Amino acid sequence: MEEQVGAGIGIAIALLIWAVFGAVIGFIASKIVKGTGLGLGMDIVLGIVGAVVGGWLFQALGISIGTEAISHFIAAIIGAVVVLLVIKLIRKA
Questions:
Q1: What CA–CA distances, in Å, run from 89 to 13, 56, 72?
Q2: Cα–Cα distance between 63 and 3 in angstroms, integer?
Q3: Can you spell out the DSSP letters for the chain?
Q4: Residue partners of 32: CB distance under 8 A and separation at least 6
Q5: Domain ranges within the chain, ordered by starting residue
Q6: Mean pLDDT of the chain
Q7: Torsion-angle region of residue 24: left (phi > 0), alpha (psi -120 to 50) or beta?
Q8: How many whole angstroms separate alpha carbon 20 and alpha carbon 48?
Q9: What is the pTM of this model?
Q10: How many Å is the Cα radius of gyration of the chain?
Q11: Assign residue 35 a region: left if phi > 0, alpha if psi is -120 to 50, beta otherwise?
Q12: Conformational region of residue 39, where left means phi above 0, alpha means psi within -120 to 50, and beta covers everything else
């Protein structure tokens, strides 16, 4: 039983870290592209999606971003900016 409680707390902490990371990344990317934030919920979603897109994009292009946290942070911001730019292009069409 104690292992299940420990695992549950670990999952909750991981989700909290993802949410905070996503909010920061999403906010920075939305400031770069639009000049304003999108709101906490959308910033979190944008940051998480941007991290996935950035990681995929760098891997697809053969760019090694290293293992340091700051390099992943930068890749996530770039990915989130790309997502926002694609959304802008789709809305204009």
A1: 36, 20, 26
A2: 39
A3: -HHHHHHHHHHHHHHHHHHHHHHHHHHHHHHHHTSS---HHHHHHHHHHHHHHHHHHHHHTT----SSHHHHHHHHHHHHHHHHHHHHHHHH-
A4: 77, 81
A5: 2-92
A6: 83
A7: alpha
A8: 10
A9: 0.79
A10: 15
A11: left
A12: left
CB-CB neighbours of 69 under 10 Å: 9
Q: Which of 65, 86, 87, 85 has its CA nearest to residue 76?
A: 65
**5 phi and psi, to 5 degrees?**
-65, -45
- Give the tens place of pLDDT for each residue, 20-59: 998 999 899 988 987 766 788 888 888 999 989 998 888 8
Cα 51 from Cα 69, distance rounded (Å): 12
Two structure tokens written together for 20: 């905070």
Task: Tokens for 29, please give them.
Answer: 């990317």
Rounded to whole angstroms, how far apart are CA atoms 26 and 23? 5
